[in-house]
Amino acid sequence: MNCDEAKILLHALLDNELDAGHAREVEAHIAKCPDCAAELAAQREMQRVLADTSLRYTAPASLRSKIEASLPQPQLQRQQPSRRSVLRGFAMGSAVSALAASGVVAVVLRQDDQQRVLSEVVSAHLRSLQAGHLIDVVSTDQHTVKPWFNGKLDVAPPVIDLTAQGFTLVGGRLDYVDARAIGAVVYKRRQHVINLFVAQTASTEHRPPKTQTMQGFNCRRWGERGLNFWAVSDIGGDELAEFVDKFEAAMKANVEG
Amino acid sequence: MPANDDLLKAQRFREAALPYLDDVYTLARYLLRDASDAEDAVQECYLRALKHFDSYRGPAMKPWLFAILRNVCNAEYARRAHRQHSALEDMPGAAEQTPMWQEGDATPETEVLRSRDAGVIRKLIDALAEPFKETFVLREINNLSYREIAAAAGVPVGTVMSRLARARAMLRAAWTAEEEQAR
Fold this sequence. Notes:
The complex is a heterodimer. By secondary structure, chain A is an alpha+beta fold. Chain A has 8 helices and 7 strands, in the order H-H-H-H-H-H-E-H-E-E-E-E-E-E-H. In chain A, a hairpin with a 2-residue loop joins strand 5 (207-214) and strand 6. In chain A, helix 2 (20-32) crosses helix 3 (34-52). The N and C termini of chain A lie far apart (93 Å). Chain B is an all-alpha fold. Chain B has 9 helices and no strands.
C-alpha cells in the first residue's frame, strides 16, 4: 500500500468502516510510515475535538409546527350547531329540515357503501387470482355450475354460457363480500379472468350498468330482477361492457324463452 | 375530510420522519448557510417526503430524507445560480480549481488543535467547498455510515471515502491556519 492510498483509507480506519483485511493493511503501512502515522494521529485528534463541539443545529419550534400543520389532521370535533341555526331550522319547519337532512345522509351513506362494496368486490377478484382459489366447481357446462350453487346461497345466480360470444364459462365459486356469501361465476376472455359476482338485493328495479375503475381493474355493476351484479376484470372497459351486454341479452332470452 | 388511510399514513410518517427534523435541519443549515433558506428547504423536504412516503421501502429513514433534502437544496442552488452560487453536482473538481487553503505543507508533527467555540468551527465547515462539505457533515455531524452517505448522495462508496479524506484534510488545514492567525 502506498501513502496516497493510505491517506484515504486511514479515514475509513478512523470511522471503523474497514473490513479486517484492509484494516490490517493500513495499520501495517502506518507502522512503517511516520508520515501517515502522524496524519492518522492528527485526524484522530481533530475528530475528538469535533466530537466535543456541538455542531448540530436545532430546528426552530416554528418549523416543527409548520410541518406538523401540513400533515393531514384528524378531523376536529364537528362544531355543534349554534343555537341560532338550530332555531332557524325550527323556523323553516322541522319536518322539512329533518327530511332534507336525512336525505343528504342517505345519499352520502349510499355512495360510501357502494364504494366500500366495490373495493371489497375488487379485493375478492384479486384474492381469487392470487390464492389459486379461482374456481370451486370447474365446468364449462352451465348445467353443472348452476346446480352447484344450490343450497350454498340464498339466491340462484344465473349461470350463462357465453362461449359462443367469446367469453368462456370456466366455473363457479363461493366468495364473501360485505360479510355475506356471494356467488362468483368465472369466465375467461383469452387469458383474462372475469369474475361475475352475484348477490341478492331488495330492489327489483333495473339499474343500468356503470363502469368504475379501482386499482387498475374495471368493474361494471348493474342491477336486475332483484340481483346485483358486479363484473370485475383487467380487460378493457369496452370489452367488459361487451361482456355485460351479451350476458344481459342472454339472460333476457333465457327468461323469455 | 381526509380519509382514514391518509390519517394513518400521516401518523406513520410523523413517527418515522419527524424524529430526524434536527438532523435534516442541521444538514440544510450547512448546505445553504442561511437560517431562513434552510427552514424553507426543510419544510419542502418534508412535504415531498410525505408525498413519496408510499414508495418508501426503508430501511433507513435518515439517508432517505437527506437524499430528498439534497434535491431541494439543488433546486435552491439553481435559483441562486445567478447570484454566483453553484449546484452541488456542478463542481466535482471545484476544490482543485479554487483551493481554499493549501493543504498544509504537511509538517505533520501533530499540532494539537485547541478546542474552539462551536461558532468558529461551524464557520470553517461552512467554508468547505462542495461536495466535500456535504460528505463531511453527513459523516461527522449526522453520523451516517459510508454506505448511507453513498445512498443519500447517489455516489459510490469509494467516492465517499475520497471526498471525506479531502474534506478532513482541508478542514484541518483551515483550522490550523485559523489558529495561526488567532495567535
